[in-house]
Write a structure and sequence with these properties.
- This protein has two domains: about 230 residues, no CATH class; about 190 residues, Spore Coat Polysaccharide Biosynthesis Protein SpsA, Chain A.
- The protein is about 55% helix and about 10% strand.
- Strand 2, helix 5 and strand 3 form a beta-alpha-beta unit.
Length: about 425
């Protein structure tokens, strides 16, 4: 798409921020009779749909890891694995070694590592690995090539020959039979893309990594439920499988967004392409281990999440069915509008010596998250979500989610005020 397609993001951010402010301001400024009962009704609707979405996982949990037929080697398609790597000296050798140990016919598997302008020892390590593994294909880009991860992946597409593409991060870990089981799932569901459930390798490192592990499980619970109810699901960057012709038909990876996975998810939805969600086997990755890294990561996710709705919002009103519109509206309000409205509501309450008005909806959102946290942590899983799950851990993890009520308003304000320069913030992988 042209650069002009994205030029109104700043204006749309300001309009969205202003709308959230007025939604919070009007009940405080005008004594609207029975308005609190309207809030309670909305809270009931949120609970009702949220519980329906979560409950759909009961069926998945009962049949987890059961496939009617294991796909044979002769039926397996040509697969290209793509990894965009910049300054990944801590993990890149381990990744390559593991990829070449996966169960998959060697004549049907190509592994591409894109050295995206690394300034550390990554190029030297890849040079050594290329001599060790004849089938390893290393693609190099200059540091100022632009486009971030999307640019690196798009550049690599011209070298690929497979029918399917599997995009991994440099810290990814897969089980040895993951690829074969993945394509057995594809064959059964006739999916255009599949997202492996993400799990955490350093789950017991500290409080933040444990919370992120539960958060990933919660996300998978909602993802599977939304797919079952409304046919809406999303890619998550690491561990995403997509048919190459489908990707090309959607315009490849968007280099004008900071979250290519979320952007591509909406374009796939608009093109009627189905994204399957596979609980097991998962793709494992490192969780960030400190608060600064977490907030930097979440700001990028928040910005990319809003960008896609600003970019494709008009198409979403015309090209998807009503249930999908409801689902997207529901989760847009909970994920993006509610945190901003709640912050404005709190500030107005303090300034006007009034009581907060929207707290029942916030309470409802946290309650649903807590249920999904607990259920996701207790589901049968090949990789434990927590070393030891208990009610206290679920409670503090729900409290941990409150950081979104700071990140979303802050990111929206920045998007509304400052001219945007696309910046891809790198998540540091330690390899420990």
């Amino acid at each position: 798409m042209s650069k002009g397609f994205y030029k109104n993001r700043r204006l749309k951010s300001f309009i969205f921020l202003s709308a959230c402010f007025f939604v919070a301001f009007i009940p405080h400024a005008f004594n609207i009779e029975n308005f609190f009962y309207v809030i309670l009704i909305l809270s009931f609707v949120i609970v009702f749909y949220g519980l329906i979405v979560i409950s759909r996982n009961v069926k998945r949990n009962n049949v987890v890891n059961i496939v009617s037929r294991r796909i044979s080697n002769t039926e397996l398609p040509m697969l290209d694995i793509l990894v965009a790597a910049r300054d990944e000296e801590n993990v890149i050798a381990r990744l390559v070694e593991r990829l070449f140990s996966l169960d998959y016919p060697t004549n049907k598997l190509n592994i591409y590592i894109i050295d995206d302008g690394s300034s550390d020892k990554t190029p030297l390590i890849l040079d050594r690995l290329a001599r060790q593994y004849d089938k390893l294909k290393v693609i190099s880009r200059s540091p100022n090539a632009g486009g971030g991860k999307s640019g690196a992946l798009n550049y690599a597409l011209k070298f690929t020959h497979g029918e399917w593409l599997l995009v991994l991060d440099a810290d990814a870990e897969l089980k040895q039979d993951s690829l074969i089981r993945l394509f057995s799932f594809v064959e059964e569901g006739d999916w255009s893309a599949v997202q492996l459930r993400k799990s955490v390798t350093n789950v017991s490192k500290n409080f933040l990594t444990s919370c992120q592990s539960m958060e990933m499980a919660m996300d998978a619970i909602f993802q599977y439920g939304r797919l079952s109810v409304a046919g809406v699901s999303e890619l998550r960057g690491n561990g995403q499988l997509i048919k190459k012709e489908t990707l090309l038909a959607c315009g490849s990876f968007n280099e004008d967004t900071v979250t290519d996975d979320l952007d591509l998810s909406l374009r796939l939805l608009l093109s009627k392409s189905r994204i399957g969600i596979l609980w097991d086997p998962p793709v494992m990755e490192e969780a960030v281990e400190n608060l600064n890294a977490l907030l930097a990561q979440r700001q990028r996710w928040a910005e990319g999440g809003l960008q896609r709705f600003f970019d494709y919002g008009d198409q979403l009103f015309t090209k998807i069915d009503n249930l999908q519109k409801f689902d997207l509206t529901y989760f847009f309000i909970l994920q993006y509008a509610l945190p901003i409205i709640s912050i404005f509501d709190l500030f107005l309450s303090i300034a006007l010596l009034d009581l907060p008005i929207y707290w029942p909806i916030s309470f409802t959102a946290f309650m649903l998250s807590g249920i999904a946290f607990w259920y996701g942590s207790s589901c049968k899983s090949e990789v434990p979500v927590l070393q030891k799950s208990n009610f206290l851990m679920v409670f503090v993890s729900v409290f941990y989610l409150s950081h979104w009520f700071l990140v979303i308003p802050w990111v929206t304000i920045k998007m509304s005020i400052f001219p945007k320069k696309i910046l891809w913030r790198k998540t540091i992988h330690t390899g420990v």
